[in-house]
């Protein structure tokens, strides 16, 4: 069977545009002799549709669009992800995450998702019911075994511990499937594509069936989808691989002969840069922003965000602002100017000092008798935030924040200051990872000035300030944070690993205390297995580590 994979980028709720992409891909594939054309999970409504699913008018519009698409099909099959509804179901939502198979002018077969995830960034239990049953479908002398994303992530041969008691794919095999097709919307995190490759290869090999895995591509706010659709033969050999972080279209013949593909993932630095570029570009494009605004401090974080912005939207669409105070070193300005030149971007230089001085003067009376502390430091950051928001409002720029995961975790990003912005581009990267990525960027020539890389990190909010005045060294801090945030370890386990329980307690306390800040932060582009935001839900008010 000749199967066309349409690895496309949808917009949540953009039914007209998504429908056009489906029909365009279908017509192209039909002209090229495809028997079956496949689009990813929930492609028609966009993934994840979240509370749009709860709107009756939206669901009805999705159903109508699906029927209109089906009406334009001929003998070639069209498979795409959509929403279906069972009006006779008196228990539960009656709404399903489904795969619709269309041909000869109508929807001929629907297979709904069986395993409904409810962990990390997934909250499908809130909206969808599990499939009532699992069937194969006879089509063009094959028995199609169709599953949706999570359904294929519960293979007993691959996972030592499974999340669900049933295995939908095994049931498809038991029912006589001759081809396995999985439509997916699987969010990117580094290392996951290699895991998918190993899992799917084992499944195809054990079941002795060709396996088609069609994954969406693009970014939906904080979630990034990397594409990388995969086609395996019945021996478990990967024979076709979709483009990574790009839309793609290709036809796979299950009876054809192809070279085996063994490498599916690049090095960390390259993958992360491509993911963040796509995340930022899609956010800007899908929300209508044309230009990006960044506060440039002379530090490595804002330098990296500026570089990513240039790669995402082009140098002509990136504007940066330097906002020196009396504590800003001369080097910070010089380093920023060098970066501006290297990237070819526009800039402004606006001192915050007059406003800082006037604000402190106005607060002298209410602050009478009290020593200066972090209040005055934060004033500087918050005044910078006022400047940046004003420029964003006046010119319609997309303001990006520049805080990294280490800072956001421990509260070393100022609420209503440097946290002002619509999107946190590097908020899922630890400080040590920032340095790795910047060195990778500079591997052939100096783009981000070496002076920025080599300087001691500092917020420059008081004389001779460095980050390590109040935080452990970043290599130690990031080890602790990774164990706590991503591996779900607690004080004892982390202390056993690093050997300093007092430092561990301090860091974990900082993370817990600053939950209130993160609840008010910009969405963070997710590139790890556990990012702040939608996928990590901790209480602000709690007594676990009081």
Descriptive report:
The chain has 546 residues and is of the alpha/beta class. It is 36% helix and 17% strand. It contains 16 helices and 19 strands. The radius of gyration is 26 Å and the shape is elongated.
Give the topology, please:
Elements: E1 2-7, H1 15-31, E2 36-38, H2 56-70, E3 77-85, E4 95-103, E5 106-112, E6 137-139, E7 142-148, H3 168-174, E8 179-184, H4 192-207, E9 211-215, E10 217-220, E11 223-226, E12 230-232, E13 238-241, E14 248-253, H5 268-287, E15 292-295, H6 300-313, E16 318-322, H7 330-343, E17 346-349, H8 353-362, H9 374-395, E18 398-401, H10 405-410, E19 423-424, H11 431-441, H12 450-454, H13 474-485, H14 491-498, H15 501-513, H16 515-518
Question: Which descriptors apply to this entry?
Answer:
single chain, 546 residues, alpha/beta, Nitrilase/N-carbamoyl-D-aminoacid amidohydrolase, Rossmann fold, 3 domains, 6-stranded mixed β-sheet, 16 helices
């Amino acid at each position: 069977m000749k199967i066309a994979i349409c690895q496309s980028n949808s917009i949540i709720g953009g039914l007209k545009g998504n429908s056009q992409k489906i029909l365009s891909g279908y017509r192209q594939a039909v002209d090229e002799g495809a028997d079956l054309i496949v689009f990813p999970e929930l492609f028609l409504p966009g993934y994840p549709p979240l509370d749009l699913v709860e709107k009756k008018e939206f669901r009805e519009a999705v159903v109508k669009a699906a029927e209109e698409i089906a009406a334009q099909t001929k003998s070639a099959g069209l498979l795409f992800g959509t929403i279906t509804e069972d009006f006779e179901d008196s228990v539960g939502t009656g709404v399903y995450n489904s795969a619709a198979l269309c041909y000869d002018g109508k929807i001929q077969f629907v297979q709904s998702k069986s395993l409904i995830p409810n962990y990390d960034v997934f909250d499908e239990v809130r909206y969808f019911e599990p499939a009532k049953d699992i069937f194969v479908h006879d089509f063009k002398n094959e028995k199609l075994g169709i599953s949706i994303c999570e359904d294929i992530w519960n293979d007993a041969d691959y996972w030592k511990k499974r999340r669900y008691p049933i295995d939908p794919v095994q049931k498809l095999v038991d029912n006589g499937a001759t081809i396995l097709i999985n439509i997916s919307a699987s969010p990117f995190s580094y290392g996951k594509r290699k895991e998918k490759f190993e899992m799917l290869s084992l499944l195809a090999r054990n079941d002795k069936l060709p396996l088609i895995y069609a994954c969406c591509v693009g970014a939906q706010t904080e979630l990034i989808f990397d594409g990388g659709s995969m086609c395996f033969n019945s021996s478990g050999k990967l024979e076709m691989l979709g483009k990574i972080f790009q839309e793609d279209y290709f036809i796979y013949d299950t009876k054809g002969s192809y070279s085996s593909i063994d490498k599916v993932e690049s090095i960390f630095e390259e993958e992360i840069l491509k993911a963040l570029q796509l995340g930022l570009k899609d956010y800007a494009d899908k929300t209508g922003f044309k230009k990006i605004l960044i506060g440039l401090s002379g530090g490595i974080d804002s330098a990296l965000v500026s570089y990513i912005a240039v790669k995402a939207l082009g140098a002509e669409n990136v504007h940066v602002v330097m906002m020196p105070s009396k504590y800003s070193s001369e080097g910070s300005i010089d380093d920023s100017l060098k970066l501006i030149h290297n990237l070819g971007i526009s800039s402004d230089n606006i001192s915050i000092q007059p406003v800082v001085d006037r604000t402190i003067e106005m607060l002298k009376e209410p602050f009478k008798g009290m020593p200066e502390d972090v209040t005055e430091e934060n004033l500087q950051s918050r005044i910078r935030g006022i400047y940046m928001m004003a420029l964003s409002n006046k010119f319609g720029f997309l303001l990006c924040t520049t805080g990294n995961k280490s800072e956001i975790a421990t509260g070393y990003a100022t609420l209503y200051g440097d946290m002002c912005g619509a999107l946190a581009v590097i908020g899922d990267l630890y400080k040590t990872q920032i340095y790795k990525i910047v060195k990778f960027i500079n591997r052939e020539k100096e783009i981000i000035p070496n002076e920025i890389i080599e300087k001691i990190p500092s917020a420059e909010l008081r004389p001779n300030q460095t980050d390590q005045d109040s935080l452990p060294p970043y290599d130690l801090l990031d080890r602790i944070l990774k164990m706590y945030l991503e591996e779900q370890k607690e004080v004892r386990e982390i202390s056993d690993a690093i050997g300093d329980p007092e430092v561990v307690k301090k860091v974990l306390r900082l993370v817990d205390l600053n939950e209130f800040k993160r609840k008010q932060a910009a969405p963070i582009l997710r590139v790890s297995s556990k990012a702040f935001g939608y996928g990590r839900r901790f209480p602000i008010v709690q007594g676990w580590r009081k």
